[in-house]
Amino acid sequence: MTTDLNRALQQLSIATFNRRRLLASAGITIGGAALAATPLMASAQADSTPTDGDDMSMFAEPVDVLNYALTLEHLEAAFYRDGLAAIGEAGITGLGFQASVYQQLMTIGDNEATHVATLTEVITDLGGEPVAEAMYDFGYADAAGFLQVALALEDTGVSAYQGAAQFLIGEDALLTAALTIHGNEARHAAYLGLLNAVSPFPESFNPTLTPEAVLEIAGPFIVG
Questions:
Q1: For residue 197, what is the DSSP state?
Q2: Among 207, 121, 108, 200, which residue's Cα sits nearest to residue 163?
């Protein structure tokens, strides 16, 4: 795929894939917070410089890419851990779903916790300092809102890994590992799409999000 086509797809994705629209249409209020709520996000903002070339990155080294991924995985893992405990199985079955749906959501949460543990271990092994879990406000009020936010998070996660993959070119083992997580997140997103009664594969090409766009979307969930 040519560089020009990549840029065109990227511009298209940024214009059409802002998950805030999904949340707003669902009537969900997101807890407000500065984008620089974590040192990683502050660094990302400071280091991201627009460029016409592909030789500059907001990430100084591969461990920074992994910490970017870990920031998102912490967010997702906390969302499922705390959210499912709060709404309980009754919250899901109350929407007309079978109890097995709650168990599948628990499995997704377990997947996210495994991603956190794995990325933390790899970052440590590489001599880096893993970013810590933050405090979050996901803004939903009930089980239906939980599922809507879950879809927003999973869709954003898929496109985030897709957009960050280019920064691991030349790091074959790390790129392969990141793609295995990307594939798992895509399966989550498809399942959540079905639960939310929307297409699990709405487009022939999945939108790609830049790190800056992802942090703009995810930042408001982080409150401390």
A1: T
A2: 207
DSSP codes joined into one string, 73-131:
HHHHHHHHHHHHHHHHHHHHHTTT--HHHHHHHHHHHHHHHHHHHHHHHHHHHTT--PP
| Domain assignments of the chain as residue spans, ordered by start | 3-221
Domain 3-221 in this protein, CATH class: mainly alpha
What are the C-alpha distances in Å from 144 to residues 20, 60, 76, 150, 196? 17, 40, 17, 10, 8
Evaluate if pTM is beyond 0.90.
no
Entry field: residues in the chain: 224
CB 66 within 8 A of CB 128: yes
* Regions of the chain where pLDDT drops below 70: 1-57
Residue 47 neighbours by CB distance under 10 Å: 14
